[in-house]
Amino acid sequence: MKNKSIKDVLTSTEMINVYIIVALSMVIGSINSNFLSVATVITLSRAIMVTMIFALGEMLVIVSGGIDVSFPAVACAALFVPIKLMVDNGINNVWFAFGLAIIIGLVFGALNATLTAVVKLPPLIATLGVSSLINGGMLAFFGSKEISNLPKAVDAISQKFLFTYTAPTGATYSLTVLFLIPVILCIGVALMLKYTMLGRGIYAIGGDQNAARIAGFNVVRIKYFVYMFAGAITGLGAMCYCILCRTANPKNLMGSEMMVIAAIVVGGTRISGGHGKVIGTVLGVVLVGLIQNNLIMAGVPAYWQKFVVGLVIVLGTSITSLKAKKIAQSAKV
Amino acid sequence: MKKKNIDGSILTLWIMIAVVLIAMAILKPGTFYKMTNLRSMIFQFPEYGIMALGMMLAMISGGIDLSLVGIANLSGIVAAKIMIGMGGEPVSIAIGIMAALAVGAVCGCFNGFMIGYLKVPAMLVTLCGLQLYTGIGLGITTGPALTGLPDSYKYFANGSIGQIPVVLFIFIAVVAVIYFIMNFTVYGQQVRFMGSNDEAARYSGINNLKVTIMTYMISGILGSISGVLITSHFNSAKADYGSSYTLLTLLIVVLGGIHPDGGRGNVGGVVLSILLLQLVAQAFNILQIDPTGNMKTFVYGALLIIVLCANVLKGKKKKAKK
User: Fold this and answer.
1) B100-116: per-residue pLDDT in tens?
2) Cβ(A203)–Cβ(A47) under 8 Å?
3) What is the residue extent of each domain of chain A?
4) For all residues of chain A together, what is the average pLDDT?
5) Which of A314, A319, A327 to mutate to test the interface with B (most CBs of B within 10 A)?
6) Cα–Cα distance between B39 and B37 in angstroms, integer?
7) What is d(CA A302, CA B145) in angstroms, rounded to the nearest whole number?
8) Which residue from A128, A206, A229, B108 puts its CA 20 to 30 A from A331's CA?
9) Contacts of residue A136 in chain B, CB cutoff 8 Å?
10) In sequence order, what are the residues at sequence separation of 6 or more whose Cβ sits closer than 8 angstroms to the Cβ of residue B252?
11) Which long-range contacts (C-beta less than 8 Å, at least 24 apart) are formed by B195-199?
12) Closest approach of A305 to chain B, Cα-based (Å)
């Protein structure tokens, strides 16, 4: 596969994403000249970083042949419960916040894995149930009031920046230090998927579970890893979101699953499992983020955005499945 | 063997209904067993009950329909827009409702086409269908609820004939039609067959594409009937009414003995499970243990998982016996 033809590279899903991103940027830029600037890059990076973290975990789950719609609920719990405990008990420790968020993610990830891998429930219905369980339970037992006075040590992170850019107009734009988290995670996951046995195993069980089992992969263990890893980084992403917003809101993230699944599917990951790349997901997240955050600059009213995102997914899935259909119908050697 | 299995799940439902009724007779006999309470229950369940029947059809065909709430709101909005635009004459109500049903059918056809022709998984199609239809609704209303519907339109969801609410008749009529379709038509047999094994269905000469489109179209029409009831109930139309119904309908269908893999299940089980969940919801209300509604979300989620696990374990036991 090393000597791919140039035509294959130019028509790959990743490149199509690049074309659309460039075209969209040019359209928005031609309508609103403020768009093409360093400031937009920084704002967009900040806006998509949490989606990026969620998308990485969700992508692993989808590649392994499952789906997880419970991550918004997990994220809400992972950001609200630690902050609530810290505020109520006067704990002021960053490691406690991140540690507990990750542990909450791990626990619910393990629950999802048990339901889908051991009890063998359909992943969508199982995680939908878990989502409602977590969300209802948390709001009923931990309260639903937003906490805006974050512990000082946690809040302080929101003021640590990688660099600051001053626009000619005098306004300053800073990139938060938390942006390193999705960058490191992306590189780590990409390397894992490509070069480790575990990574190849995730593709294998997503492609054909039985074949993977016969080939010697421990399907149940790999699924536990995937769901728990996804849960852990969901917790991590949730805490980042909390710090970026500087409040702990128990409901804000609910409903974000469509955005994330859209980004993944647009990025070329096949929803039926076995296919998907980190680079595609990154491009998908950028594309969806661009649509979500910058269409308003092109004069599209905010209330049409939901529709546009839906349309993007429909087109994305249609192209992916038409391609798959073509491959299935082409002559087999 | 198969017949016995269905009877088993229906028996469980009857027992659970009896448990709730007896528990309420002990805890709050005065408020629960009253005509007003009975009437308030009947006013509530047809909205999501009709939606659940759509979900049932999709699931029997081997898919799922998560876009029902989106279809319901979009068709409600279209109906409201037409009625308000035409000045609220009785004719406009009729045209509005026809338009709503047409919207449901079109949305359903779109779902069915994507699933049957492009072979995109039903779950993904209907999940983004939900986004798409809610998005169109949001675009039409620009956010806030559409109000100022004609007064007589309220009658569907809020009026009654004597002591019996009108919605009950609508619900019974819909159930009867769906029961007839599932048990006495060729399509009903085909959809079951396709749900249990689509490959075998194709080889035996069933046009899978046609059956799939039919299924999601009927499901979409059911969604739009429920949308008409919701707008009539609130006397306004909005893009995000009834957002909790997706999970509720899934729970109803699974509890009613429909197998998530498709092929199995019947209308009776679903109707019983609608009644059971309405009784539970009403019991929560009367006992006042859940003022915010969050507890209900928690219990629904837990119930869904427990029922599914129980079904799997029951299935395993049966296999072991063989």
Assistant:
1) 999 999 999 999 999 99
2) no
3) 6-323
4) 87
5) A314
6) 5
7) 16
8) A206
9) 294-301
10) B48, B49, B52, B55, B270, B273, B274, B277
11) B195/B59, B195/B60, B195/B61, B195/B62, B195/B261, B195/B262, B195/B263, B195/B264, B196/B62, B196/B262, B196/B263, B196/B264, B197/B263, B198/B62
12) 7
Query: A271 and chain B: CB distance < 8 Å anywhere?
Result: yes
Element (H, E) at B117: none
- What CA–CA distance (Å, rounded) separates B219 from B178? 10
Architecture of domain A6-323: Orthogonal Bundle (1.10)
Q: Tell me: the pLDDT tens digits for A101-121? A: 999 999 999 999 999 999 988
Other CB atoms within 10 A of residue A118 CB: 12
Answer yes or no: do B132 and A261 touch at CB < 8 A: no
**Three-class SS of A127-188:** HHHHHHHHHHHHHHHHCCCCECCCCHHHHHHCCCEEEEEECCCCCEEEEEHHHHHHHHHHHH
Closest CB to B301 among A67, A121, A131: A131
Three-state secondary-structure class, residue B234: helix
Residue B288 touches chain A, beta carbons under 8 Å: no
Q: Which helix (H) or strand (E) holds A42?
A: helix A38-63
d(C-alpha B215, C-alpha B113), whole Å:
11
CA B166 to chain A, closest CA, distance in angstroms equals 32
**Ramachandran angles phi, psi of B146, nearest 5°:** -85, 120
Beta strands at A161-166 and B164-165: parallel, antiparallel or unpaired: unpaired
Burial B132-159 (b: 16+ CB within 10 A, else e): bbbbbbbbbbeeebbeebbeebeebbee
Q: How many residues does chain B have?
A: 322
In this structure, what token pair is assigned to residue A20? 């659309």
In contact, B57 and B291? CB cutoff 8 Å: no
- Cβ-count burial of B119 within 10 angstroms (0-12 exposed, 13-18 middle, 19+ buried)? middle
pLDDT, tens digit, 9 for 90 and up, residues A6-40: 777 777 778 888 888 888 888 888 888 777 788 88
Would you state the pLDDT for residue B48?
A: 93
Q: Is A306 on the interface with B (CB under 8 A)?
A: yes
Give the type of residue at B186. Answer: V
Closest listed residue to residue B41, CA positions, set B17, B58, B11, B59? B17
Minimum-distance CB partner of B123 among A119, A124, A301: A124
Q: Under an 8 A CB cutoff, do A128 and B302 touch?
A: no
* ipTM for the predicted complex: 0.82
Calpha distance B13→B188 (Å, rounded): 24
Taking a C-beta distance cutoff of 8 angstroms, is the pair B263, B64 a contact? no
pLDDT winner (highest mean) among A242-256, A267-281, B96-110, B229-243:
B96-110
Which CATH code fits B2-316? 1.10.3470.10
**Domains of chain B: which residue ranges?**
2-316
